[in-house]
Each structure stands twice: as structure tokens, then as C-alpha cells.
Design brief:
mainly alpha
């Protein structure tokens, strides 16, 4: 299999969480250890020093490179989800995260969710002076929280 050097685009970690992420954060779609630093994504687990970090680097095949021929992100490395570099988690107020988790467990169609988020995106721009890019990233993070907490049968049944 042909590989290219990892350039920190985040594709692998965002498309398919690794085994370590699945063990540490069951059910998440994007690993909270994926952190945007300077001009690339980095894995917080690989940055741990000592034997623990060495174990993660071995488990995650550090240095093996990118083997995905479908990875178009290599040509457009940019932050795709905003993370707090100190904690490695998407920043949303904890109270709002609880609301999103509760709301995601209800029978709400994907269309309804997208309509509400479109209205919210417009309100962030008009009422809170967000840039279009900042509003879009915020909505993306909210949708990530909702999708991470929805049961798969709801996605299939409700669209």
C-alpha cells in the first residue's frame, strides 16, 4: 500500500475514530484528542510522554503516513471543527451540551434539526455579529454534538 507523509489534515481521525478513541470516548464521531495547533491537526494521545504515550504512538502507527487514496483534504488543510487546544474538546457551554444530548434523544427529524440550525446561523450573524465562517463552524459543532448523541435507529427512521 502506498503511503504519503501525514500532514495533519485531520481526515483519518474525523472520518473513522481509531481504536484508542473508541475505547476512551465510546460513541464519539470526532476524537476530542484531535487538536488544531498552528497550521495542522495533532493527536493529543501521541503527545503524551513516557510509556503511555509510546504505547499510543505504537497503537496509532505514528509515522506510518496517510494511506487513503480518497483523502482530498491533503490539498486543503484547514481547521474543520474548532477545538479548545487546552482541553482538546469542542467548545460549547456545558449546559448547552446537556440540552443537545437531551434533544438528540427525541424523535426530531433531520430536516427539522437543519431548519432550526439554519435559523440559528442567521441569528448568530445578525444578532451576535458572527462572521459567516464562525457561524458555520459553530453550527457544525452543534450538529456534531447532536449526531454523536442520536441513536442510529432515529437517523434511519426519521431521516
Amino acid at each position: 500500500m502506498k503511503t504519503s507523509a501525514c500532514i495533519g489534515c485531520g481526515y483519518c481521525c474525523m472520518k473513522t475514530p481509531c481504536d484508542a478513541c473508541s475505547r476512551l470516548y465510546p460513541g464519539v464521531k470526532i476524537c476530542p484528542q484531535l487538536i488544531w495547533i498552528d497550521d495542522r491537526y495533532e493527536c493529543g494521545l501521541m503527545k503524551i510522554s513516557g510509556l503511555i504515550g509510546e504505547g499510543y504512538r505504537k497503537d496509532l502507527s505514528a509515522g506510518a503516513g496517510c494511506c487513503s487514496s480518497l483523502n482530498s483534504w491533503r490539498k486543503d488543510v484547514k481547521p474543520r471543527v474548532v477545538f479548545d487546544a487546552r482541553s482538546g474538546t469542542p467548545y460549547i457551554d456545558p449546559e448547552f451540551q446537556i440540552f443537545l444530548k437531551c434533544w438528540a434523544s427525541e424523535f426530531v427529524t433531520t430536516d427539522n434539526i437543519k431548519l432550526v440550525l439554519a435559523k440559528m446561523q442567521t441569528a448568530l450573524i445578525e444578532q451576535k455579529n458572527y462572521t459567516e465562517d464562525d457561524a458555520a463552524v459553530t453550527i457544525h459543532i452543534i450538529m456534531h454534538h447532536i449526531e454523536s448523541n442520536r441513536h442510529s435507529f432515529m437517523k434511519d427512521f426519521m431521516g
